[in-house]
Amino acid sequence: MKSRTLTCITAALTLALSPTIFAFAGVTLLQLSGDPFTNSTSQHRTEVEPDTFAFGSTVVSAFQVGRFFDGGASDIGFATSTNGGKSFTSGFLPGATPFSTPAGIYARVSDASVAYDAKGGVWLISFLGLFPNGNTREVDVLVSRSTDWGLTWSNPVVVNADGDSKDKNWTVCDNTASSPFYGNCYTEFDDSKLVDQIEMSTSTDGGQTWGTAQPTADHAHGIGGQPLVQPNGTVIVPIVGFTGRKFLILSFISTNGGARWSKPVEVTAVAFHAPAGSIRAVIPFPSAEIDASGQVYVVWSDCRFEPGCTASDLVLSTSTDGINWSALTRIPLDSVDSGVDHFIPGLAVDNSTADGTAHLVLTF
User: Fold this and answer.
1) Where are the beta strands (DSSP E) in 165-264?
2) pLDDT (tens digit, 9 = 90+) per residue, 117-142?
3) Which of 145, 174, 309, 311 is most buried, by CB atoms within 10 Å?
4) Is CATH 2.120.10.10 the classification given to domain 6-27+44-363?
C-alpha cells in the first residue's frame, strides 16, 4: 500500500518540528503506467510499491505490476522522465517472468528499488526474482541495468542466488567523485533461511557483477534496510531489527567500501501499534534518506507519544555518522490523541540542501 498524502518539511536546526515548518501539499495525479497482464494468478489493474530516484533532470520510478494474491507480481514496471517530470516513458523489465518480453525463469518478481551510478552513467533497478525454474524455496536478488537514462533495460543480472530465500532488497551507489569508493554500488537484503540474517553485496563495475554476500560483524538479523552513502564514502544502513517480540531500529556502517560491515547499534526500540482494519503494515519499516552534508534522516511509525499507544505517529531521528542518533521527534501531522494512525512513511530529501535548511518531503 502506498499513500496519497504529501507533506513538505523544512528541517529546523534543532529538529524540533512544529506545525509552522511543515505543510500539506495538494498533488495533481498523472497516470504513468498501466497493468497490461492477464494471468489469473494475479489481481490485475494493479501497480504497487513504487520506488523513485532522481538525478539531475532524470527521474526513474519502478514498481510491481499485476500483484499476485499471495505476494510478488507479474513483472516490474518502470516510468522514466528525462525532463524533470514533465513527461514519462513507461514499460516493463525484460527477461524476468513468463509474462515478460522476452520471458524469464522467475515465476514472479517483487520489491523494486532504483539507484543511479554516476561514475558509470548506469541506472539500476534492484528487485527480487521468486521461484526460479519452479524452485519455490529460492528467491534471488537481481538488478536490471540501463545505460540510456532509464529508457531501456537489460535482462536481470544476479546479485545473489545461493539457493536460499532472500527478502527486502535495496540498492544505492556512491556518487561523490571525491569519495575513495566513488562508483561502488551496495545492495542490502536478508536471508530468510538464516532467520533474516542481514547481508550486503557490493559492485564496483556499475552492477555488472556483484561480490559475495557479507553479514554484519555480529551476524545480526533484520529486515528492510536502506543503505545511504555519505560524501566521504561511509555507508550507513538503517534497518528494522528484532529482539523477542519487539522491533528495534538499528544502524550499521562500512568505512572501507563494503569489505566489512560493523555490528549494528540500536537507535531505539519501537513502540509499535498495528493499524486498524487489518492493513498490511505489520512491521515498522523505516524510510531513510541523506542530505548534501551527509546527515541521515530516518522516519518510521511509532506510538510512544500517544496515550495508551492506541495509534501511531511518524517519528524522526537523524545522524551524521550512523552511530550516534538524535532523540526522537514526533512529526505533528495530527494532534496527539487524535486516534489517527500514520504508517508506511516514504521520505525524500533534496540532496542539494543540507542541515538546518534541508528540504524533506514525506508521504504516508
Assistant:
1) 166-173, 185-191, 197-203, 214-215, 222-223, 228-229, 235-243, 246-254
2) 999 999 999 999 999 999 999 999 99
3) 174
4) yes
